[in-house]
Amino acid sequence: MTIKYDKKQPLYEQLMDKLKTKIKEDYKPSDKLPSEREIMRDYSVSRNTVRQALNELEILGFIFRQHGKGTFVANTINNPATLGNEHSFTKQMKALGRKPETKIMEYSIRQASDYFADKLKISEGDRIIKLKRLRSADGVPVMIDRTYLPYAKFAGLSADELEVKHRSLYGVFAKDFGEIFHIADESLSAGRISDKDAIVLKVPQGSPGLMLKRTTYNQQNEIIEFTLSSTRSDQFVYNIRYKNANI
Questions:
Q1: Distance CA 181, CA 140 (A)
Q2: I need a labelling partner for 16 at 20 to 30 A (CA). Which of 148, 156, 165, 189 fits?
Q3: Are the CB atoms for 25 and 31 separated by under 8 Å?
Q4: Cβ contacts of residue 165 below 8 Å, gap of 6+?
């Protein structure tokens, strides 16, 4: 196959365009791409050109790599959710025109370990509620939440309220328990989705993800929620706006 390239444009950029077209037309999310050697052969370019093109495609979110396994097509979407702007997954998805769905994977009452007692500012051994939820949008699994709540504040919480009746957690907090969301502290880090979560989220093992920790306070500045989330990085972006205080 003879491929013509424009000498006025960097070769790796032209290869990027060709690979993007190929991905959109012939591949599905999580499909494995040809090896660097195969791309070199098929497009008559050097290894350095291939690596430059793949690096740029990875930065743009078209592909992801797994060490020792190869390069795979990412599940790029046109309207990714923006973390940090809306703490209610249900409201956020509806605002994007996507259909939210929550599946309760675990509902249990247990004693707080030292770690969770510290996170919720309660005594070790106090009862807490653990909710493990799979969050989906338009039928696509995007996030696993592990939420820990002080039992003393939410003793009557029903899993059916969140799953069957499709109510948001913060809506239940406010209407059923008088606990109104006031402030949330959230931290975000890049990480690797665990093999167990990867199966549920339907991504290859070793896939990159966004790991969130959220502590939510009521209007009395009491902690009412601590959540750990494992999120598909191809379904979310994180936007931050800075303001120049000197202007």
A1: 27
A2: 189
A3: no
A4: none
